[in-house]
Amino acid sequence: MSRDGEHTVGFIDLGTNSARLLVVRSHPDRAYSELNRLKEVVRLGEGEFIANVLQPQAMHRAALVCRKFVEMAQGYDAEKIVAVATSASRDARNKDVFLKRLRREAGVDVRIISGKEEARLIYLGVSSGLKLGDEKALFIDIGGGSTEIVVGDQQEYFYLDSLNLGAIRLYTKFFSPLETGPVTQRRYKKIQRHVRQSSVRTIQRVKPLKFSRAVGSSGTLINLAEIAAKLCHPSGSGSVDVLTRADLKTVVAHLCSLSVEERAKVPGINPERADIIIPGAAIIDTLMEDLNLSEIRISDRGLREGMPIDYLSGSGSSEWMDHRTFRKRSILQLGHSCGFEEAHAKHVAELSLQLFDSSKAVGLHKLGEPERELLEYAGLLHDIGIFLSYRRHRAHSYYFIRNAELLGFDETEIAVMAVTVLYHHKSYPRRKHPQFAELDKRHRRVVRILCVLLRLAESLDRTHGQVVKQVEFRPMDKKTTQLDVTAEGDCQLEIGELQNHAWSFKKTFKKRLALSLNGVEIEEPTSPDPQTVSS
């Protein structure tokens, strides 16, 4: 329940190794008060990375913990639960099954985010706990399934990356569950070679950015710093806030000499990390070597703390903190990277929004602001595939959007935009098409609506001359909806293209589409839609 503009929100970070909860009360000035936080080890990625399949017991543990988190947040009268899942979930071939299970058993809708989006949220969380000013810092977060690397100052990031390197992922790759003895130097060097090969391009890009300090986050780094403080500085002179490379080497040598059972008893260690601590250490050890870091400062903040900052930024007034502006900037960056025709793209996006608002006003659909925003972005990106070739450019546009790791979006939002663009002309979405079939029932319905509106909008600027200025739907009778088109100049090609979409309009909205141009009704074409029989 809100009071005087305050709202209570629960944030869940469902990681590969641990699940974290943060419950906050937001204030009208975008500040927030922390009400509770919790962390539980779930080992969601346990046994997954062999075949990229989440295991039944791991999903069961995660569902139980998420249910516990939801109930705790509700105990604080949370009005909303914002939940994201990271590496283990995004790599899993059975992620849809898992998400449905979380919805059914835990009562929470979890969004899967890309690696770069994870890096961005981590940057928000960690940087907000530092006083950097214009000082540039390197951020490293080592999770169970991935490692995120960011370079940024207090206000913005300059580089984001996510590597498929994580403590559980590497443990699965280099160890069997039956191996519980010491780790040989040869085995450790083999892990390091893999880390080096996987991170070489990232290292090459980060080095020239000239950061002045390194900051590490995540349970692996926190635990290594705690072990180093006790092992290397038993007198108490060591700090758990800093991990030096020299101390890390000492810790690694000691941990490798022990069995898993002995490791679990090392002062400072979290016993639940005894098996995966060495693969995690190999990641930071290698990165510190290759980046020539003498030390790394440790932060107890991370993705969980970045989520409320990102969520509450939606009500902000400054551009860099405005969430929607940030998302749109991410979209435009992709468009510019693909050399899109910006004037045409923006006009199609604007016409798409006019169609969305007008069709909602006359009762053709009941979609809301989230879907409206995705339609605008699909309009901006609908032709970016031409960068590769005009032939099959819709499929190329789909591929670019699906694989660009757009920041600020979850996987479902990206999929909706990509599939909408795929069907913005010619073929109508059908269950037999794999790109469409991968969406759940609700989002298939969303795409059918959005793609029809987008194909109408694209047709309205067929000549790329922006001659159509305004469009508005008007109900005629129970079976017919008319689209009134206002144009300045010749738009016969646009009208002809509109008529080609009469069938898909009727298929989606169960209404016949009639047209008028500058107040004059246009005679309906006698030929059937040429694109529906074969599609």
Automatic annotation (TrEMBL):
EC number: 3.6.1.11
Domain of life according to the entry: Bacteria
Residue ranges of domain Ppx/GppA phosphatase N-terminal in the record: 24-310
GO molecular function: exopolyphosphatase activity
Keyword Hydrolase: yes
UniProt cross-references to Pfam families, sorted A to Z: Ppx-GppA (PF02541), Ppx-GppA_III (PF21447)
Keyword terms: Hydrolase
Ppx/GppA phosphatase C-terminal domain mapped to chain residues: 327-484
GO biological process: regulation of transcription by RNA polymerase II
CDD domains with a match to the protein in the record: ASKHA_NBD_PPX_GppA, HDc
PANTHER family the record matches: EXOPOLYPHOSPHATASE, RETROGRADE REGULATION PROTEIN 2
Name by which UniProt lists this protein: Exopolyphosphatase
